[in-house]
Amino acid sequence: MDPLRSPREEFEKIVAEVAGALSLGETPPVERTKRYGYFSARFHKYRVDPSRLREVVESIRGRPATYLAGLSVDGLYLNADLNVKAVAGLVFDAVGKMGRRYGFTEECRLGSLLVEHTSANPVHPLHIGHGRNAILGDSLVRLLRFCGNKVEAHFYVDDCGVQVMYAAIGYSAVKREVDERVQRAKPDLVVGHVYSAVNAVAEINRLKRELAEQQDDEKRRELIREMDEWVAVLKRVMDAEGELVNKLVEVLGQRDVAGEAVELNRRYEAGDPEARRMVREVVDLVLRGQRDTLARLGIEIEKWDYESEAAVWSGEAVRIVSELKRRWPQYVESKGGAVVFRADKFVEDFKLWDVLDLPKFVPPVTLTRSDGTTLYVTRDVAYALWQARQGFDKVIRVISTEQTHEQAHVRIILYALGYEDAAKKVVHYAYEMVNLPGAKMSARRGQYISLDEILDEAAERSASLVKEKNPEVAGVIAERVGVGSVRYAFLSASPRKPIEFKWEVVLNLRQNSGSFLQYTYVRAYSILEKASDVGKATVPDDMLPEEQELIVKIAEWPGVVREAVAALRPDYAAEHLDGLALVFNSYYEKAPVLKAEEPVRSFRLALVNAVKTVLEAGFYILGIPTLTKM
After folding, report:
1. What is the C-alpha separation between 341 and 305, in angstroms, rounded?
2. Does residue 92 lie in a domain region?
3. Which of 398, 411, 388, 355 is nearest to 568 (CA)?
4. Angle of helix 257-269 relative to helix 187-213, nearest 10 degrees?
5. Domain co-membership, 186 together with 275
6. pLDDT grade, residue 169 (50/70/90)?
7. SS3 readout for 423-465
8. Number of domains in the chain
9. CA-based nearest residue to 413, from 463, 449, 376, 439
10. What is the tens place of the pLDDT at every residue in 300-354?
11. Which residues of 317-351 are buried (b: 16+ CB within 10 A; e: fewer)?
12. Under a CB-based contact definition with an 8 Å cutoff, are residues 342 and 333 in contact?
């Protein structure tokens, strides 16, 4: 139920009547604007005489209107304001009937959707960058479900590739020590340290071999400098896990870890049972920790799709390469034994930019290494094909803008293989990075800010905002305030804008933060709890400016949800909730509710209840925990 539907339809009829009187042959579209009136229609392209437009409008100006007020002409704009009192009646009726579902309209049903998000490498904890991916993906799932769509959340487990093998080799070398440590620490954190240490050992061993063969003094100095950097990485990891890393160095110090990783990856892709056991042990250990982190954020994943199963052991990745060679030999090249698909030429010849929504520049793509093993993009095509076969109307892949070309390659290759519908169903939901001032990120070197660290600090900082005297309750509230603040921080900006994560913004109690919205909700809840009952409201003739503004903002909520779904933009909801909260808090300070005389008291209670209802719906969409005290 959309309270603004009737006012809009009323204005559309007026515009159609004016267009008919002017013999235009068509009706100008209705637009939302705050420049001239709430609704506007532009007559510019019809070469209308402004005086004639004014004359026609003047002839109907005195006609009674139910939901509109202030019909006017400004140049070639026909404008109308809202009759806020009449709209208030529609708002209270819709909120009463829909409850927490207020905001849902049939127009935001899209069908069935698969949303793939997070999909972090299973070799270390989720870091702050994964946080934006996970929270964006989860909020898309929530937004789409709020609108009655069938949605399934998937996590793509990248359990193939050399980096995963480094973690597997490291875990196998110090398995007993790791298993002891994970009794007291998160398993993904412990394996993350092992992974960084193995990378350091492998790089130091490689550099030692190169140094022994290098005669040029300048190049030797460069190798020594690089080796010193990796020694520093090893020392940093030792500071966190000294005993564990010392044992790791002792076991792996003289081995060709890089060569072993390549061989283990080959065996794993071939389905060797021992390799499968080795890799799955460490992968599942890391996923256990990552699941716990996602649970803190209120994120649930329905399906965990393993790369090895969907793309490799099924033979799909190899089949894709063979099929491309068979179908399009003129676009397939061999470079040093590696197979390359000339995606650039294919797109140019078939003019696919608009068909597949491609970036302006598309490079060639390498599909296999010289040893015949497939690369990530090839396996990703196989996974995209697997996703398409699940029967969803659309597949949304939440993946950073850094992979724009790779995701374009996925759609191009699907199209080239004859899966044109599948290629068009895939949506690359791109987002920009999160910048933490003063932090330098490198997972291989063990330099990252884990998402757990962010959540821990958010809860710690939120504790100062919580007034609850019971320490146990205060701790739970602080955690929920921290989660709400972090989620909102990642959702309040457009996905295509980089985020600079600053605590003074994240936990701002005055505006534009999760804690600000939670605080606003607590205020509304406390009023209604004391009132005990919200009866039928009579809308007064005279309303405060804030009351009128609140009515309009509440009425706009279904339209905001509809636009957010159409554009896949949860930030639209975040922005609207912030604006609603700003007006409500100003109103809270100015207008008594419980002590007001009837019928104003009942009206204000209904207004507060409507604000609370919109916040509840918005909190579900954004995944912000609801609090009744703070």
Report:
1. 26
2. no
3. 398
4. 120
5. yes
6. very high
7. HHHEEEECCCCEECCCCCCECCCCECCEHHHHHHHHHHHHHHH
8. 4
9. 376
10. 999 999 999 999 999 999 999 999 999 999 999 999 999 999 999 999 999 999 9
11. bbebbeebeeebeebbeeeeeebbbbbeebbeeee
12. yes
Q: How many CB atoms lie within 10 A of CB 513?
A: 23
Name the least confident of 132-136, 292-296, 471-475, 548-552: 471-475
**Residue 614 counted as domain residue:** yes
Residues 277 and 322 in one domain: no
Cβ-proximal residues to 60 (8 Å cutoff; 6+ apart), any chain: 14, 17, 18, 71
Q: Which of 434, 463, 492 is the last residue of a domain?
A: 434
Same domain membership, residue 475 and residue 596 = yes
Q: Is residue 440 one of the residues assigned to a domain? A: no
Nearest to 195 by CA among 180, 178, 211, 182: 178
Of residues 13, 56, 6, 57, the one with CA closest to residue 36: 57
What is the pLDDT, as a whole number, of residue 563?
Answer: 97
- The answer to whether residues 289 and 215 belong to one domain is yes
- Confirm whether pTM is higher than 0.85: yes
Residue-range definition of the domain harbouring residue 286: 162-297
Distance between CA atoms of 542 and 551, rounded to whole angstroms?
Answer: 13
C-beta separation of 241 from 185 below 8 A? no
Query: Is residue 167 within 8 Å of residue 191, measured between CB atoms?
Result: yes
**Per-residue b or e along 426-435, where b marks 16 or more CB atoms closer than 10 Å to that residue's CB:** bbbbbbbebe
Q: What is the secondary structure of 49-116 as a DSSP string?
A: -HHHHHHHHHHHTTS--SSEEEEEEETTEEEEEE-HHHHHHHHHHHHHHHGGGTT--GGG---EEEEE
Tell me, yes or no, whether 540 and 572 share the same domain.
yes
Strands (E), 213-298: none
The enclosing domain of 364 has a CATH number of: 3.40.50.620
Mean pLDDT of the residues in the chain: 94
Q: State percent of the chain over pLDDT 70.
A: 98
Q: Are residues 124 and 70 in the same domain?
A: no
* Best CA proximity match to 196, nearest among 266, 245, 129: 245
